[in-house]
What does this fold into?
Amino acid sequence: MPKKALVFYGGWDGHEPEQVSRRFADILEKRGFDVERTDSLEPLADIDKLLALDLLVPCWTGGTLERESSRNVAKAVGEGVGMAGCHGGMCDSFRQDTEWQFITGGQWVSHPGGDGVEYTVNIRHGSSPLVEGLDDFQVKSEHYYLHVDPSVEVLATTRFPNITYYHISNKPIDMPVVWTKYWGLGRVFYNSLGHHNDVFDASPNALALMERGMLWAADGKRYAIEHGLTTARFENAAKMY
It folds into this structure.
């Protein structure tokens, strides 16, 4: 049976959610996935639907997620459904929902200089099979500053500061651009690139990372089944929410 993916898009149009979601859906369909693409949050209210998925791809900036839907996403990913997304479509979503931020591993806070900033994305070679064969690459887009979960596995970074702004008073740092993490049995992948859809045309390595990340995240459920992993150790804590 083909793997199943749900790609949902919406929120602020400036991140071109319709175009980005179509691009990701096309990639997955070419890889043999059964893909549902929707501009609604309603599917997130159906826990049985979510549990039947292999991959969840959010392309939704801002907005509000109902408490039940948030719990459903936490449960589904915790039981092995992968999550993968980019830019504001995943880590500038549902800003009042701290559980969503806990799952995804980060939250947008700023992009000094706005759009059109030129910078380098530095691959952390050896950090993961997902970056094998990829070299550092240039980007002209927003230079994304995030607050990041310290538990994430960082696959690529970019150097800050680049633009003179208030934060320049602090020491230079390597800001994560691409990372992976786990949520229960689920695999989570994030790529902060993708302010506009054409970033993936201008930077093929950014697109390669997205494709590899989506496939990796979607394989988490199968891995858990094959290795006899269960959610038993998470269930007591989950009842507290």
Remarks:
- The first helix runs from residue 17 to 30.
